[in-house]
User: Fold Cysteine dioxygenase from Neurospora tetraspora.
Amino acid sequence: MAVGITQTVAAATTSVPLCLMATFKETPSLDNFDKLVQALKDALGPSSGLTSDDVDVEYLTRLMQDYQSDEVEWSRFAFGDASRGYTRNLVDEGNGKSNLLVLVWSPGKGSPIHDHGNAHCLMKILQGNLTETRYAFPDPTSSSSSPSSEPEPMQVISEEVYRENEVAYMADELGVHRMWNQDPDNFAVSLHLYTPPNVARGGCHIFNPETSKKSHVPKCGYYSAYGKRLNE
Assistant:
């Protein structure tokens, strides 16, 4: 189901010359969310992502910070499913070396502890609050990696609540994390820019919080793409 507001605007009564009608249909006006999507794409250009020498991460962050969330503008991408922890909804694939997603978080649910497949992520909260619990990346050389050793729980580094319109950055060198929506009654929505789009192509690892054991999720697909629900 789509989350958020769907607004229908009545047609204007002012007559439009026939010669201009085709032009109006071909060049619809962009709302501020559309402008943000285009600005992010333009800023990334032909680069390989956030770590490229020709990409200004601070500028990308400012673009996300400057956008004031408007449910009417992004709700067409926000498909939620209360039976899941969250859904991944594709908005744009940039130059093929990034992807921009709207994630919809079910009430009281969230993600497992996961890495980002060596990708980098900028996140903006569009609706509600999200809690991030960040963990140290398990050391593959530690005794817990041995089948005969005692399991060791994941080590918590920090926990932070991000609120509407706040922006955060995450990458594997900062650890692994879990995101969740603590609100038991309402969906939360966030915007994520991933570069490169490794998780969509090759999956990611999830981690057991009690034992630190990891397992590979081979592919993290999309629940919808470009505002259209996908068949699974």
In short: The radius of gyration is 20 Å. Residues 87 and 93 are 17 Å apart (CA to CA). Residues 32-44 form the longest helix (13 residues). The chain is about 20% helix and 30% strand.
